[in-house]
TrEMBL record:
A Gene Ontology biological process term: intracellular monoatomic cation homeostasis
Listed name of the protein: LETM1 protein
Record carries keyword Lipid metabolism: no
Limits of the Letm1 RBD domain: 43-128
TM regions (residue ranges): 58-81
Chief location category: mitochondrion
Highest taxon above the source species: Eukaryota
One Pfam match: LETM1_RBD
Source organism (scientific name): Sapayoa aenigma
């Protein structure tokens, strides 16, 4: 069924609370990684990617906070998210948005694989024609 306005507001507040909490945890982990870097340790590829993602999320947080702090500006947030889909930090993404991104990535990979297969088939035809 349909949710009441109160339930929608509560759900949104929970979503933002969880997002800020996850961002706080990521920031703490990133701070430890930076500390390790400063002391000469090498990060793994996974750690490096997580550190970069967390730094990008912190930079994305600044414009996002403007929407949260300025009264009634949160009503414009959906419009700006349509114009700038990567504006939200990654910890604030919903499951449907994550699935949508995964589908887009998979479709792009399938298109690339199709293109490469066609290219290889074309090269094989040329080599066969040259040698035949």
């Amino acid at each position: 069924g349909r949710k009441s306005l109160r339930q929608k507001v509560v759900d949104e507040l929970k979503h933002y609370y969880k997002g800020f909490h996850l961002l706080w945890i990521d920031t703490q982990v990133a701070a430890r990684m930076v500390w390790r870097l400063l002391h000469g340790q090498v990060l793994t590829r996974r750690e490096r990617r997580r550190l970069l993602r967390t730094c990008a999320d912190l930079f994305r947080l600044v414009p996002f906070l403007v929407f949260v702090i300025v009264p009634f500006m949160e009503f414009l947030l959906p419009v700006f998210l349509k114009l700038f889909p990567e504006m939200l930090p990654s910890t604030f993404e919903t499951e449907s948005k994550k699935e949508e991104k995964q589908k887009k990535k998979l479709n792009a990979k399938l298109e690339l694989a199709k293109f490469l297969r066609e290219t290889i088939a074309e090269m094989a035809k040329r080599n066969k024609a040259d040698t035949g």
